[in-house]
Amino acid sequence: MTPISFALILTGVLLNAFAQLLLKAGTNAVGHFEFHLNNVVPIGMKLALEPHILGGVACYVVSLVVWIMGLSRVPVSIAYPMLSIGYVINAFIAWHWFGEALAAQKLLGIGFIVIGVFLVARS
Question: Is 56 exposed, middle or buried (0-12, 13-18, 19+ CB in 10 A)?
Fold first, then answer.
């Protein structure tokens, strides 16, 4: 994998991961809600106008473009497993920003993911 290919794939992964974090921050700001016919429009507008959610959608759009550029240079059998890096990043940032738990079992799973991505990237 060339440095440019790696940079495109990694940028796509990071943007995708950041999009998830922004969406979570947006749902935290909006709060818990139930969808019913009588609240689809008010809740939909609340979600559509929440800045974190707008930022998350923007990150998704940019990540899609970058990801397509990366896929044009890297076999999907190598690129797709790289998305797992996003899980690792999100787990640690969610722990730091949102206070989500990082138990030993989760850390062990993250370790396996890192090893797996390393092995795939070297193939």
Answer: buried
Which domain, by its residues, includes 47?
3-122
Q: Classify burial at 69, counting beta carbons within 10 Å of its beta carbon; exposed 0-12, middle 13-18, buried 19 or more.
A: middle
Q: How many domains does the structure of the chain reveal?
A: 1
**CB burial of residue 107 (10 Å; 0-12, 13-18, 19+):** exposed
Residues 6+ apart with CB under 8 A from 79: 9, 67, 70, 71
Is the Cα dihedral 60, 61, 63, 69 positive or negative? positive
**pLDDT of 88-104, one tens digit each?**
999 999 999 999 999 99
Q: Please, what sign has the CA dihedral across residues 70, 72, 77, 80?
A: positive
User: pTM here?
Assistant: 0.84
Cβ atoms of 45 and 89 closer than 8 Å = no
